Amino acid sequence: MSQSIRADFPILDRQAHGEPLVYLDSAATTQKPQAVIDAVSGYYETMNANVHRAAHALADEATQAFEAAREKVRAFINAPTREQVIFTRGTTESINLVANALSQRLSPGDEILITRLEHHSNIVPWQMLAQRSGATLVACDITDNGDIDLEDFARRLNDKTRVVAINHVSNALGTVNPVETLIGQAHAVGAVVLIDGAQASAHLPLDMVSLDCDFYAFSSHKMFGPTGIGVLYGKRDLLEALPPWQGGGEMIEHVTMEHTTYNVLPYKFEAGTPNISGAVGLGAAVDYLTSIPQADLVAQEDRLVQLAVSELKQMPGVRLVGEPERRLSVISFLVDGAHPNDIGTLMDRQGIAVRTGHHCTMPLMERLGTPGTVRASFSLYNSQDDVDRFVAGIRKAQSFV
């Protein structure tokens, strides 16, 4: 199946440094299938116009395509209504939107609970909220293997906890967190829960009704869509009650010099001209993802990841960083005697794209006792040949250090 899927992604036909490209950096951004590329270019070629309110044909077509994308996303995540699907610039903006909108609900003595497994985008906005409100930011510890320490989470959760923010899947280690359990525990103390789903949306089935989180954030470019567009899902009562984050056009109902009334959902949180082509591309990415049996995709990715992990464990001088109970798509590792950046550069010269550094998880790296790692991340277009090239690439890189 991977070979037929690979053919859908034109960039994978290119070479890097004279070698066939092996792309193992999908946790940073996924490549785009031709269907998504065509959808974005088709928007600009045939219907480029601003959405809503205009009286001409192009604007009507653009509006219909834009709102059709919202409905596709709603169905993809099983949100109860389309009004609960807010378009943002991505996961980072979605989290910032929630953190800013919650400002008036927190006060000194309140607590915000996160974990040491988080991306900076799910740390810094909460630090800023704590500074504005006087609340305290609390971080739950993790195990040496890279799982959330569930006992520590339960200890830190209390009647002062107002917000809990955790990732669904770790971008640095691939840890799949038991979010259903954590959401239930957080709700039991009355906390609002946000889930950072950036690394989950392309790999796991999403169902907002059964998940029961208050907010869920994810990015188009992590799931084969364009950059610069993302989604914030929220429970309707919260979205109705929270104030808008940004002011301007689209998010208003009526404006005078003395007073403004706000638009209905979802437009209340979508100030200014949206990323229309990005939304159209995201809709095409959802169509692409839903056209492929997800169970088959997950099984193939798991097989490739487990094969790569098994090979790395047998290689002298290579150490896995993090061995979580459940891993999804990501492998972090170190090579003895070599800086991660050097390994990444040596692999790049062989046409193998991996990522190196702290992966925007500096507190996690500090907890694990390393400034950074080499990270390989897999997706639906990878194959066993990619794993073989990856393993051979590490061995060759080792010969230079």
What does this structure look like?
The protein is of the alpha/beta class and 401 residues long. It folds into 2 domains: 130 residues, Aspartate Aminotransferase, domain 1; 244 residues, 3-Layer(aba) Sandwich (Aspartate Aminotransferase, domain 2). The chain is built from 14 helices and 17 strands. It has a 7-stranded mixed β-sheet with strand order 4-10-9-8-7-5-6, sandwiched between helices. The chain has a 4-stranded antiparallel β-sheet with strand order 13-14-17-16, with helices on one face. The protein has a two-stranded antiparallel sheet with strand order 1-2. Helix 5 links the parallel strand 5 and strand 6. The longest helix is centred in the N-terminal third of the chain and has 21 residues.
